[in-house]
Amino acid sequence: MCTAIFILSGCGGGGDSDSPPNSSGLAVNAGPDATVTEGVTYSLSGEVTGGDGTYTYNWSSSPTLDITHEDNTVSTASFVAPSVSEDTNYTLTLSVNDTSGNTRSDSTIITVAPVNIAPVASIFVPQWEGLAENQFPGGVDIVLDGSGSSDADAPSQGDEIASFRWSQTAGINVITGVDTHSPTLSISTPVANDPQVIEFQLEVTDSEGASNTTSVSLSIQSETQTLPVADAGFSQGVFSGEVIILNGQASTSIASDDTLTYQWERFGSVLSSAGNSSFTNEASSSNADVSISAVDDSDALSTFAIAPLVSSPTVLTYTLTVTDANNNSVEDSISVRVQPMPTALINDTGFVDQATNNAITKVQQNEFPGQDGQRGADIVGKNGLIEKAGRGLAGFDFTRLNANGDEQDADAQTWSCVRDNVTGLVWEVKTDDGLLRDQNFTYTWYSQDDNGGFEGDEAGLAASCTLANCNTEAYVAAVNAQGLCGFFDWRMPTHEELFSLLHLGLKDVVAVDADYFPNTGALSNQPLWYWTSVPSADGVNSDDAQNAWALDFDSGVDNFLNKSTAARVRLVRAGR
């Protein structure tokens, strides 16, 4: 901080007091006019003559200044010249009173001049991964950023730099037609047979007219040095037999070299309690089946693989190699953690098709990952990596039981029940003989217990069957009286249990495996409703549940039906 001390002489700011003469002879001189620079401490000192010799001094300013005047019995005071952007006049007035009541004043004009600190130009250069500092491939877009330039004495924040001006000082011209008066400069690096050096200069000017420049030099690779770009996609976690999505991305910034080739390879390591062991594309001794995972189309950019059958958690590395016409190759990899397929406690949906944004297809859809058709027991079964106790479509696993409840061969022509080896449930099989379990018989919903406050329709007048009362409770009692398959604990299935039979991947047929569940019913323009044991809170009348849940074995949807509705029944027993 500079300090300037000015002792005001008796001649005053113009030589005379601002107030008219009076009989006391009191006269004031505020000192001469002066010019000081911003930030300087300026000392004020006036002179007084006449009066009764005892004075009180007061300094004021227009425009206002922060004046330090600690003792009003003396004239000396000071102020710090404020920051200004141009010469600014301040009128300093000294008013004096004596004890006799006489008052006189005088003014002086102090001009504060700005001191401009030059701005600092700065260029931020984004770096290219894998290359040296300020080195770039040919044909890529980069942005040089000068917005970090600063001005220490800017009049206000956000108003540091008044103008930017970019220019190119060396190398192949890349700024023709480019905006060179913005804080940033967007360029495309040149493509040439030989390496290039291009230089740029940034000149910044502050609001007070001072300027500063800085430069940057960029090294640009030749056409043959510039490598393609490879992105192997995202790492994943899957179960054995599920789809591994290999959806790579590749590009080159060299327009004349747009012929790229691709190659996927797989490497991995088995994670076991005994420690880690590694393998390449050969089978691991501790996990021999891991080698069966092959890439569907290893020289395609977007393809897939089937997760191998493993007995312990396994990490596979899939590496994408991209090669350009100059034989430049780059690699990128993803990690895929493969877990042994857990023992299923419920069936999958049966759906193995996949969807685009406008179609259903059997083709792998890498652009739409995470679909039902890419995950779960059904796709694992389709890929042949489920060991079944029986047989069945997709991930379903069924075993036929005879009239005594004993297992039958899968090709047996007659059977009475089916065991679901996934859920452990044993299901009734419908008949087509006009007897008790005929496929065409229907029942109203009725239960004396667990009925939601309303037992339902006992008479079953809307239904059709061989019983006196065609309702669900009567049907359960009749089947248990017969001891179907040697069992006497048949019951109505819950919503979840009945839904576990639905095969939603089937088209134009009933939504269940007909090889194990024949006589489910014929498709028509009406739903193929089967009752569950679950009453529905919808349709409540006086706090009584008038409805119950049912499933449509045509569409696979569920809904609540009035308990007096006629619908089919498939009984169940046991379970896990």
UniProtKB/TrEMBL annotation:
Pfam family, one: K319L-like_PKD
InterPro entries for the chain: Ig-like_fold, KIAA0319-like, Lcl_C
Entry superkingdom: Bacteria
UniProt signal peptide: none
Family annotation (CDD domains): PKD (cd00146)
Any single GO CC term annotated in Swiss-Prot or TrEMBL for this entry: membrane
Domain (Lcl C-terminal) ranges: 417-573
Name listed for the protein in its UniProt record: DUF1566 domain-containing protein
